[in-house]
Design a protein that fits this description.
Length: about 325
Amino acid sequence: MANISTQLLDSHEVDTAAELLTAGELVAIPTETVYGLAADAENAPAVAKIFVAKGRPPSQPLIVHIRPDWVERYASDWTNVGQRLAEAFWPGPLTIVVPKTERVPHEVTGCLDSVGLRAPSHPVAIELLDRFGRGLAAPSANLYGHVSPTVAQHVLDDLDGRIAAVVEAGASRVGLESTIVAIDGDHVSLLRRGAITAAQLGSATGQTVVDKTMGPTRAPGMVLSHYAPAAPVEIVDASALANITFGPGDLVIAAVPVDHVYSVHLPDDVSFAAGLYEALRKGDDPAVTRVLVVPPVAGDLVPAIMDRLRRAAHR
């Protein structure tokens, strides 16, 4: 694709971002989870640019970011269970997969008849949606398969010259992509783990939550290999650390203190989730030959963290 000059916008330049999106351009935007690569969700040629910029297979569906009261524009069947989930977790890091309306082009859904809808809670994302007035298709703003971006510089490292602009608004608070669910009859299917847990979903809906995170691709983040830096990733149990001789090319990311010159300490599940992608991107340094990750063992976010690590380690 032809290179373009990527603008770095600050969080007060939302009008400029909305104008670029109206013109069919791609703009990376902050959300509470990770930075997303946004295009007008109702503009099929604009959405197609996302796949080119990221090198993403067109069969992989995208999430549409909306304001909560726009559901009927994009969902052809919005159930009571969906409403309960939205009331409990929107705005926030939950994506709900529902049958789509004709307003959603098949380029957004990978030719599926369903679409994932999410109402983000980040104030800049909310302001941009209000100014733009339509849904924004927005996967993570990185090259396909690479580590997701949690700061604007990560976006530029991957996509500079491939997109129109990045809206800079500091680091993402959550640091992991949204939980994704689908409503399947008398149960809720968990398609991707995130900050909202299966227990929370069950409590909000009164329904059984069935783990389908390793099933057929119905949502983003379900492929086996994902979130990977250049260096190979290995998951290490804390009890095994004493038997490891660290080499000069080892990067250690750990929930416990580690005596190694090149290590990142993220002491609990919340800080681990928020800092994981920043730390994993250090594995792109040519001097790093191996990334050893010692994950936390306790906390609500551990299942989502382990999901990302297993996919990052899959080769």
